[in-house]
Design a protein that fits this description.
With 387 residues, this protein is mainly alpha-helical. 58% of the residues lie in helices and 6% in strands. The two termini are 35 Å apart.
Length: 387
């Protein structure tokens, strides 16, 4: 449905140029969304896929192990959309403080993303509401170090930003003037809390994401926080017991269509085309996440059986192997810290895992060696390859 523009333009002058900044109308859309039979079917399929994703954690011996790796995969993907070049392996190396040759600014950005996500999760689990305060806290952590740390971390912007182009005068899109940001975000918070919202959580998340990206309330980091907002709404509204749905891969694969549909919402009020796209992405990504979890579980079960056939060395080697299931890229020192094994015992266990081709040493050095659970990492890396 084409409703016309979903907001109003305010004409201002900036650095001698006339610009038209867009102030979105509060949610929900008016007139109401058209939930056709096809759209209802998309919603049902996406909801079923989320249910399967939520239940897959019951199959896993320790869901937190999967969540640990999956969050880091999402951090890499979401940061790649913003132009960073860090890989999953580089992030894991950075976290064990052994990352020679890694582009430090890029990997720091990804590490900040993980920290922001984990902070938000912890706050929600403590009963803190999903609110503008929490969004600002996460943003402060996201921009705490490295690039963007001089871009007002944790504060809604006090100056005009823009999207595309070299200046506001030739920008593709100019978000709301800074004086309107607080009011726009307060309206969004009200909508997220369920007031005046007749729609299920999935559609609420779809609407809120576009609204956040349209307001663009920060000087930097809007894309990453806006993508996190989707997972946090679904977790906060108890659609997912763990925030396992991350759409960065889908948005990365369909980047041009993603931006086209955001523009259509703003200029023509076509929320329905965006919602169809969003629901298709939810179904696809949720189904892929279920398959990924099953493949990782199958791989770990197979490899654990290999380890158990090692005779008298099986017990020690199994302790080393289980550390790799938690962190698929480790140093021997980390293995010792996690298991309490002596360095020679950990080294012997790792050597046996190498002999069965479960792990590979990746530095080629005699000291400070790092070992990768390469098949596990390969599964997680799918879709994160840089173009």
């Amino acid at each position: 449905m084409k409703r016309g523009s979903t907001g109003r333009y305010e004409t201002t002058t900036l650095v001698g140029e006339t610009i038209r900044a867009f102030i979105p109308n509060p949610l929900p859309p008016s007139p109401a969304l058209s939930l056709s039979n096809r759209r209802q079917q998309l919603l049902e399929r996406a909801t079923l896929a989320l249910g399967r994703l939520d239940s897959v954690t019951l199959l896993l011996p320790d869901p937190n192990i999967f969540l640990y790796a999956y969050i880091r995969r999402e951090a890499v993907l979401s940061s790649q959309i913003e132009g960073t070049q860090s890989s999953l392996a580089q992030l894991l190396l950075f976290e064990i403080e052994q990352a020679p040759g890694v582009p430090i600014d890029d990997v720091q950005e990804v590490s900040n993303y993980v920290a922001a996500l984990n902070h938000g999760l912890k706050r929600l689990q403590e009963g803190f509401p999903l609110s503008n305060r929490l969004i600002r806290e996460m943003h402060e952590i996201l921009l705490s170090h490295g690039r963007g740390s001089n871009r007002s971390p944790g504060e809604f912007r006090q100056s005009q930003n823009w999207i595309g182009g070299t200046r506001p005068g030739n920008a593709h899109f100019v978000p709301a003037p800074p004086g309107n940001v607080e009011e726009c975000m307060a309206d969004l918070e009200t909508f997220i809390h369920g007031q005046n919202n007749p729609y299920p959580a999935l559609i609420k998340a779809a609407l809120a994401h576009v609204q956040f990206e349209t307001i663009h309330p920060f000087l930097d980091g809007n894309g990453r926080i806006g993508r996190l907002l989707i997972a946090f709404i679904l977790h906060h509204d108890k659609i997912l017991s763990q925030p396992l749905l991350y759409l960065s891969l889908f948005f990365k694969q369909h980047r041009a269509e993603y931006y086209r549909l955001l523009d259509l919402v703003r200029t023509e009020g076509d929320w329905e085309s965006w919602i169809d796209f969003f629901l298709e992405g939810v179904e696809q990504i949720a189904s892929n996440a279920v398959e990924t979890a099953k493949r990782l579980l199958f791989l770990s079960q197979q490899d654990e059986q290999k380890v158990q056939k090692l005779g008298r060395s099986a017990s020690t080697t199994l302790r080393v192997y289980r550390v790799l299931c938690e962190r698929p890229l480790v140093s021997l020192n980390h293995v010792c810290e996690q298991t309490g094994l002596s360095f020679p015992a950990a080294a012997k266990g790792m050597s046996l895992l190498e002999s069965t081709d479960i792990v590979r040493e990746i530095t080629g050095q005699q000291r400070n060696r790092v070992f990768a659970y390469h098949q596990y990492l390969s599964i997680l890396n799918e879709g994160t390859e840089r173009p």
